[in-house]
Write a structure and sequence with these properties.
Layout lengths: L1 H12 L3 E3 L10 E2 L2 E7 L5 E7 L8 H4 L6 H13 L3 E6 L13 E4 L11 E4 L9 H17 L2 E3 L3 E10 L5 E9 L2 E6 L3 H10 L11 E2 L2 E10 L4 E9 L1 H17 L31 H19 L6 H8 L7 H16 L4 E4 L13 E5 L3 E5 L2
Parallel strand pairs: 2-6
Antiparallel strand pairs: 1-7, 3-4, 5-11, 6-7, 8-9, 9-10, 10-11, 12-13, 13-14, 14-15, 16-17
Helix pairs in contact: 6-7, 6-9, 7-8, 7-9
């Protein structure tokens, strides 16, 4: 399986190189090293990646910076899709960096992984993974493609990884179509997203056919049905959850607890993230954690913070309170962090639903100020 993974990677990455059979190297090219990185994916498939030694080059930070779309922007896009009855599909561009030209002038000597061409000088002509400027070069190349080929403009001033285009639907109604880009993952928000994704598929090799998103940036996405009692109809919209990440996080936490022979005393369902509604981390006077416990506590908080990013806002305040103790936690803080994961285990299904219905909000229930004699205002509750 490792041999097959290596062979597959080498056949794809070959486009990034020029083999100098005469043994010469152009003037001004810096020598670096390249190597293979191996990994096992979650579905147990083997993955090989041929990368350049970017650590051996000196590239200014301004030439290597490459931003990605924020999770806030993604949530806003799903809400916009719900409000405007737009469909969403996504695609994943394969070996994306290799579609951009290399900015750095570097070369290496081919190793045994290149078979009969081992020992040849090789110049890198494409944005190879591992080089410092490759991410920025791919973003620049793909942004130009989105603008000049697809006709979308970046949302400058908010998030330049979100692109929009004014369009008309079949009935002539105006609306905006959007593209959301996270490196090589592209979300299309459109009345007919296949119309745009067919063009991308024509110009780039996609890993899989375009499909409705089920996971993006670590969050689970799925269609959700809402029954509207006023209109007696079912509204189909999108929902976002952290269910997959919680499942994997609980496996990590449980494995660590088993290693340290730690068990929860109570088997009852945890009704709140803390063991008591009155618990205050800043007033905890329990014994300080040892070095190993500090590392465990910090990793728990890191995992939980990511869960908050993915939608578990029910633990957000508790995580913020425990985060103030990261530098010097006590065993009481560690206990509360573990209890929080028990709470997540007992309440492991929670969704944020992007409800397209406009809320009918009035202030009739709020106190109103009325001017009375003597220019004194008093609060009147209707």
């Amino acid at each position: 399986m490792w041999q097959d993974a290596t062979k597959k990677e080498m056949s794809k990455v070959e486009v990034a190189f020029h083999f100098n059979e005469n043994g010469s190297i152009p003037i001004g090219f810096q020598k670096i090293a390249c190597h293979l990185i191996y990994d096992v994916k979650f579905d147990l498939t083997r993955k090989a990646r041929y990368v350049g030694g970017g650590h051996m080059t000196n590239v200014p930070a301004a030439q290597s910076n490459s931003s990605v779309v924020s999770r806030d922007s993604v949530r806003i896009m799903f809400l916009i899709a719900a409000l405007n009855d737009l469909d969403i599909k996504m695609c994943d561009i394969g070996n994306a960096y290799l579609n951009a030209e290399a900015r750095e002038r570097v070369h290496f000597i081919a190793g045994p992984e290149w078979g009969s061409r081992a020992g040849m000088p090789v110049t890198i002509v494409r944005a190879l993974y591992g080089l410092k400027s490759s991410g920025a070069e791919w973003k620049k190349s793909f942004a130009s493609y989105i603008k000049h080929t697809l006709g979308y403009e970046p949302c400058v001033g908010s998030d330049d990884n979100v692109y929009l285009k004014a369009m008309n639907d079949k009935d002539g109604n105006e609306y905006y179509s959007y593209l959301v880009v996270y490196v090589d993952d592209v979300l299309c928000i459109h009345k007919d997203p296949d119309e745009v994704l067919r063009i991308i598929n024509r110009d780039y090799a996609l890993k899989e056919p375009p499909s409705a998103p089920d996971m993006y940036l670590g969050a689970d996405f799925a269609k959700f049905e809402i029954f509207d009692e006023e209109t007696n109809t079912v509204i189909i919209t999108w929902s976002m959850s952290a269910d997959s990440h919680i499942k994997k996080a609980l496996e990590v936490v449980q494995a660590r607890m088993n290693r340290d022979n730690v068990r929860f005393k109570s088997k009852k369902t945890a009704e709140s993230p803390f063991t008591s509604q009155d618990y205050r981390p800043e007033l905890d006077t329990s014994e300080p954690c040892n070095e190993d416990q500090v590392e465990f506590f910090q990793s728990l908080i890191g995992i939980a913070r990511w869960l908050c990013e993915l939608g578990r806002v029910d633990v957000l305040t508790k995580i913020s309170l425990l985060s103030t103790c990261l530098a010097n936690p006590s065993t009481g803080h560690l206990h509360q962090a573990l209890h929080m994961f028990k709470y997540l285990k007992d309440h492991n299904s929670s969704k944020i639903v992007f409800d397209p219905r406009y809320a009918n909000i009035t202030d009739d229930h709020l106190p109103r100020e009325q001017q009375v004699q003597g220019n004194v205002h008093e609060r009147v509750v209707p």
